[in-house]
Amino acid sequence: MSAKKPIRKAVFPVAGLGTRFLPATKAIPKEMLPIVDRPLIQYAVDEAREAGIDQLIFVTGRGKTAIVEHFDVAYELEDTMRERSKDMSVLESTRATPGNIITVRQQVPLGLGHAIWCARAIVGDEPFAIMLPDELMIGEPGCMKQMVEAYHETGGNLISVVEVPDEEVSNYGVIDPGATNGALTEVKGLVEKPPRAKAPSNKIISGRYILQPEVMRTLENQGKGTGGEIQLTDAMARMIGTQPFHAVTFEGKRYDCGNKLGFVEATLALALEREDMGADVRAMAQRLLSQ
Asked: What number of other Cβ atoms are within 10 A of residue 180's Cβ?
């Protein structure tokens, strides 16, 4: 039975145009924008590796080659750093094992569900993770590791959720919750951007998923939904009731780096936590606030 096959593959949908961050993203993928000194995509890849995932599938579009190059060997850079006795450890996490990064193209922007479907041949008949790099999840252990540990208990499909104030629920997809056991909540339904008065919970879907391969067949036959796009939420909703479906409430902090305010918040929050610069950043922030 496929329910407890290990999670070895993660799909990273990185084909978006990043229009909210123009002009910065005219020539640079938004996933390569740095939070302090690591690009967004690096945080997501490190989180996947911590969870024991070794095959990274990037669903890319035009102009996204810098993402793959980031995880390649840079001979000239490394040789120069060695000659100058520079610290090489900063590059260690950017190296991928040969063959462990695979890219597929999403030629037309038909939504998140379509992007995931583009990876169907590589996913095959295995359960797999989906990680949206825009959602920066900071925790110990990381969000995906928390989910993989829950998956070993439940099998089936899982999504990560975080709790938000009631006035914010209409901005997100939320779960209709069933029985709760610690951080695990049974999912009875998914509702996309409900009015505050009709929201079944304040637990929002937060960019991390573990799904069974049957979702690919569901996406194959699915029509367009909200915004004229093929929605992953619609495909997951159709699987509820046919397989176990749970939400894992993430213990940690979530930053929505898909918008400028969340991006700045993440940069400031992570800089303040750094041993090498936190005190200086705090003093700088206090100085700016007092002007």
From this structure: 13
pLDDT score at 3: 47
Full DSSP string of 34-73: EETTEEHHHHHHHHHHHTT--EEEEEE-TT-HHHHHHTS-
**Please, are residues 133 and 166 in contact by the beta-carbon 8 Å criterion?**
no
Question: Is it the case that residue 194 has pLDDT exceeding 90?
Answer: no
Long-range contacts, 233-239 (Cβ 8 Å, 24+): 233/113, 233/173, 233/190, 233/192, 233/205, 234/113, 235/113, 236/157, 236/159, 236/190, 236/209, 236/211, 237/189, 237/190, 239/157, 239/212, 239/214, 239/215
117 by DSSP, 3-state: which? helix
SS3 98: coil
Tell me how far CA of residue 27 lies from CA of 18, 64, 143, 287, in angstroms: 10, 9, 30, 34
Give the Cα separation of 75 and 95 in Å (integer).
12
The pTM score is 0.92
The whole-angstrom separation of Cα 223 and Cα 22 is: 31
At residue 228, the pLDDT reads 67
